[in-house]
Every structure is written in structure tokens, then in C-alpha cells.
Amino acid sequence: MTSTSSKTRSRLLLALALGASLVAGAARPAVAADGPSAVVERTTSGVIAILTDGKLSTDEKRKRVEDVVLASVDFETLSKLVIARNWSKFSEAQRAEFMTLFRNHLSMTYGRNVETYKNEKVTITGSRDENGGDTTVKTKILRGGPGDILVDYRMRQTAGTWKIIDVIIEGVSLVSNFRSQFQDVVASGGPERLLSLLRDKNAKGESLKTS
Amino acid sequence: MMRLSTIALLAVLVLAPTTTCLAADPPPATETETTSDAAGTGADYDPWQRMNRGIFWFNDQADQYVLEPVAKGWDVIMPEPAETSISNFFGNLRFPVVMLNNLLQGKPGDAAIDVGRFMVNTTFGIGGLFDPATIWGLERHSEDFGQTLGVWGVPPGPYLVLPLLGPSNPRDTAGIPVDWVFSVTPLFLSSFWWTGAGVINIVNARAQILDEVQQAKEASLDYYVFVRNAYYQRRVAQVNDQKEEGTNAPSDDLYDLNVIEDTK
């Protein structure tokens, strides 16, 4: 009960970090007509091209990675899925603010992975059609020694474009995980409580970054 | 005598969701209905939350003030390849547990791979320090008796945080002593040696995930819920074995916007 499990744990956490960095973005028009696997392929290879570009500073890399990822994520759908049933309790303004805060939260906490990139490669291992028209694209992050990490992307087509709506790392869905975390907060303190927690969290992150 | 390495490992487990312990099948329908509000899965079934949060807090203190500082020191001294080798070494020793559980789960093919891995890594891998077996296509498995019970259809039960051992549930907890029996390590080593080895294993394992744990804490609004949810989902995935097509997907309900928008 020792090292195998610890290895799994460590892989999971790393995967959460790497995978979530791919989610940290807002919705933006993507190239139309690509299939779901092509979108994942374009996004991951785009990210790796930026990470391996020796001419870019860390800050530039971070910004560019964010742009590439944002273009492939349906952030509105992702936000709705995370808030789930409580979405109707949010006013239009609160919804907009939530999306901004949540996006900033993700890019701040996971964007730092740009600095710790260690030549990981990504390979697409397959895809699966889901009920309701979604497709899951299965990938593997190849890390050499410490073992590979399985990352699945849940894709949905909106207005002819396939975008990421969830990242599932070693079986752990980010949407489900954040939904669990936000559920209690909204239930007890309403949307405003969640927004204020996110504001505080982001403010703390900003001050860490500049200090 | 209780295995100290096990206890020490617990501290590591607090921090990370996937432990040796239990796994989860999709809960029965009634359970899903009462618990699916939060996560779209049974991930939030936590009637013992008060107690669990207390133990979780205690575990986190033990980590912050004891394990993590030691692991940081270790990480400074040990080069990364050495940490990987130590981890490989202990993983190799776990071979009987993994193999027996694969047999009990009706996967003789995987058990045979485990035997092959042990032979290759113990010889060519110099006592398990290296992992040539993976390069040769003998994939490593992570199995324990909690998963075996899950494969047999035993539901996980409510979330349970164990002192020092971390995230679990009644089913996974029941698996711990069984895996201890399966593990042959303590039988041929004196307690002095396996206690020492256990401590090294735990410190080394913690050292390998220093950044990841830090990041998980920063990225979560409620770290307790983050761990609880991730543990549940991870155990479901492990019981189902990810390579099986389709069994690893979160439920479709999780992605149903109609459910969300129809609810006022």
C-alpha cells in the first residue's frame, strides 16, 4: 500500500495541474469544421509548441498558452455545468462575473505549470461518442520515468464548432470536482458568497504574483 | 503490531485523493438521487462530515508540521532520478498485493504481467530500482483489496477520513488489513527494517508531490471537498479499470444542460 498508490496520487495531481491548465480560458471563436479529435490535437500541439519555444519568456508563454486554450474551450457551457442547478439563482450580471472570476482563478492557479514543463508529450489514443451528441477524446500525457497520465476531453459541438466542456484526468472530472466545491457555498450563502470567495482567492493570487 | 509505514503513509494520503483504500462503484439509484445534486455523482455522500472534517484538519496539521517539512528537506538532498528509483523500488515490493488482487478480480492476464514485471525489474531493473518492464510493454497496475471488493459489487459506503491514513470509505478501509496480509514484506524483515523503509517510502512519496499538493490547495475553494470528490471519482475509475471502453466516463447527467436550465 505504499509506492504504487503514492505514484498514482502524484500522477493524478500532476494531471490535474496539466489538464486544468488546458481549461483555463474563455470561449472564443475557434476554427470551424474541425472534428473533436482535431480540435484537441490542434490545442495540445499548439500548447507544446509554445512551451518548447526557447525564445519566449515565461510570461509570454503563459499568455499565449491561455489564448490557445481559450479558443478551444466552451467556457459558458463549462460554467453552467459547474454551477448546475444553481445557475437559475444567478442574475445575468452574476453569471458574467462568475465566468470572469472562474476563468481567472483557473488561469492563475494552473498557468504556473508553464514554468514546470518537463518535455511531456501528448498523444491522442482514441475517441468515444457519448449519448446526447458529445464526444470524448482520450489522450495520454507521456512523461517517461514517472509514468503516463490519462486525460480525456469531453467535447461538444455548438454552432458547428467542437469545443472542450470538461477535462477528465485519471478518471477525475474537473466539472464534477468544482461542482462539488461550489454547491455547498451557493446553497448556504447564495451566488454572492461564491463570487466573493472567488474574488478573495483571486486577489490573494494576484498579490502573490506581484510580490 | 501495526505497520508504521502504513501509518506514515496515511499522512500522505490526506493530501491526495487516490489512496490504496477504497473504490467506488456507481452508488445504488436511491443514493444517487439524494447525493447527485452536488456532483452529478455519489461523490458527496458524506453523512459523517463533521467528524471527517475534524480528522482531515488533524491530518493536514500533521502534514504541514511534520511530513511536508521533512519531505522538503529530502527533496533538496535527493536528485529526482533517485526519488523515482526509490519509488520504483517500493512499487516493485508491492508486487504480491497487486498480483493477488488482479487474480481475485478475475484478471489472470494482468496478474501474469505483474509476475513478469517483478521478474524483469528485480533482475534487469537492479532490485527494482529501475522499471525496464514498462518500457518493454509490461504495464504497471495499481490494485488493492478495496478495488477488489468494488469489482465484486460491494458499494463504497459513505466518505470516511481515517486518522493519518486519509480519504477512504468503509469498503476501502476493510481492504487495508487484507492487503497487509497479502504483502509479504513484513514476513522476512525485522520490524526495525520495515519501519525504517516505510518512513523512507512515505517521505520520498511526499517529496515527489510537493508542488502538486501545493497547487491543489491553491486551486480549490474548499480543499476538503476537492479531496473528497477526487477520491470518489478516482476510486470509481480504478474499480472500473480505465482501459475498459466507456466505463470510465462520468454519467451523462453531469453534462445535461436541460436538467440545469429546466430547474427553477
Features:
heterodimer; A: 211 residues; alpha+beta; five-stranded antiparallel β-sheet; 6 helices; globular; disordered N terminus; B: 264 residues; mainly alpha; two-stranded antiparallel sheet; 14 helices; 2 strands; 65% helix
What would your notes on this structure say?
The complex is a heterodimer of chains A (211) and B (264). Chain A has 211 residues and is of the alpha+beta class. In chain A, 54% of the residues lie in helices and 18% in strands. Chain A has helices spanning 3-21, 36-51, 58-70, 75-83, 92-111, 174-210, and strands at residues 121-129, 135-142, 149-158, 161-169, 172-173. A five-stranded antiparallel beta sheet of chain A has the order 1-2-3-4-5. In chain A, β1 and β2 form a beta hairpin. The model of chain A is unreliable at 1-5 and 24-31 (pLDDT under 50). Chain B is mainly α. Chain B is built from 14 helices and two strands. Chain B has a two-stranded antiparallel sheet with strand order 1-2. In chain B, β1 (160-162) and β2 form a beta hairpin. Chain B is globular, with a radius of gyration of 19 Å. The interface between A and B is large, with 66 and 83 residues.
